[in-house]
Amino acid sequence: MPSSDYKFQGWLGHDSSAVQGMMQWGEYKPKPWEETDVDIKVTHCGICGSDLHTLRSGWGPTDYPCCVGHEIVGNVVRVGSKAEGGFKVGDRVGVGAQNDSCQGRKGDCEMCTSGLENYCPKGNVGTYNGTYLNGGKSYGGYALYHRSPSHFVFKIPDAIPSAEAAPMLCAGVTTYTPLKHHGAGPGKTVGVIGLGGLGHFAVMWAKALKTDKVVAISRSSAKKEDALKLGADDFIATGEDADWDTKHASTLDIIICTVSSSSMPLMQYLSLLRFDGTFVQLGAPDEGLPTIVQFPLLFKRLKITGSAIGAPSVIMEMLQFAVDQKVKPWVEQISMKNANKAIVDMDAGKPRYRYVLYNE
Ligand code: NAP
Ligand code: ZN
């Protein structure tokens, strides 16, 4: 089917007020077509915390108009003659937060050749608010259609419903990757800070990886019951127990921190780590992280690190892991028509635990 048979339309932010529910429906020009591309008719798109940072220009000026959304599932409507993946029109596929890198473009960078496309220095091109290596601008999945280089398109296993597959493509792989990398599993104790879209996945993955003990760490006890249902063995409400950090000091091997705000008690979080423990920051607050006092790092040989989304090979591994371990995210489906209200509610912390927009 030629691309002229459908129009690229979606919810566009035109300035930072978009995050207050002021996105406007409109048409835009997708990236110039290449024979390595795939066009997808979007059926579902998750709402990620990154969508809010971008709509409000929290990470620096956004290239408006901007259509966010990088947890995309839909059906293939056009396949380039040189596309990877053997996709056929009609296939159910997904796209995560990355849309391009030098991989597939005679890419010879150390990152892409070792399967770490998400760290490609020539361009980890975001699914929205990015510039493709061919110069086009990227637009995300709060839309009817999405065009993506095929290297970043994934077949969705039949066992995973589309609304559940969508959030796996960013929130899922962003948490799965560092848990695997830092050895979550038997013999380890893992803490997960911030029970939102990313955090609820982290609890489920850590449990499915057979981690000895998973501790959910949230500001209040409002999400305690849910956390235990998700698989947490223990729960800390940092805003309700003045002694939480001393009570749980030096008990965790790995911390996954998904907190999206800079107003976090970082030094108290670090005190929960055992000797040689690892703190992985995944959340990306507009204002950055609080000041770090060095002594706990020195005296407990702590490591502070970060992690960015996940590589294509890991996305495929994660999807299969979710099937095998029956990991199912908690999603609330909302019509694409109501995307503006959904982002306002997301900003207010209402999802339990991921909103997924669907096209009617
Ligand atoms: P989310 O669903 O809104 O979850 C964020 C959680 O952070 C909230 O549920 C809340 O948990 C906690 N939180 C928020 N404000 C807080 C505060 N002031 N103090 C302490 N905790 C607070 O968002 P998300 O989609 O999971 O995304 C989380 C962050 O990860 C965002 O910054 C996003 O941009 C980033 N992200 C990074 C990557 C990456 O590659 N590293 C990928 C995707 C997203 P409680 O209610 O339990 O306290
Ligand atoms: Zn995301």
Automatic annotation (TrEMBL):
SMART domains (alphabetical): PKS_ER (SM00829)
**Record EC number:** 1.1.1.2
Q: Key word NADP present in the record?
A: yes
Which biological process annotations from GO are given for this protein? alcohol metabolic process
Q: Which SUPFAM superfamilies match?
A: GroES-like, NAD(P)-binding Rossmann-fold domains
What's the superkingdom here? Eukaryota
The residue ranges of the Enoyl reductase (ER) domain are 21-357
**CC cofactor:** Zn(2+)
Chemical reaction(s) catalysed: a primary alcohol + NADP(+) = an aldehyde + NADPH + H(+)
Q: Does the keyword Oxidoreductase apply?
A: yes
* MF terms (GO), sorted A to Z: alcohol dehydrogenase (NADP+) activity; zinc ion binding
Q: Which UniProt keywords apply?
A: Metal-binding, NADP, Oxidoreductase, Phosphoprotein, Zinc
One of this protein's Pfam families, by short name? ADH_zinc_N
**Entry similarity comment:** Belongs to the zinc-containing alcohol dehydrogenase family.
Assembly behavior: Homodimer.
Q: State the name under which the record lists this protein.
A: alcohol dehydrogenase (NADP(+))
Q: Which organism is it from?
A: Parathielavia hyrcaniae
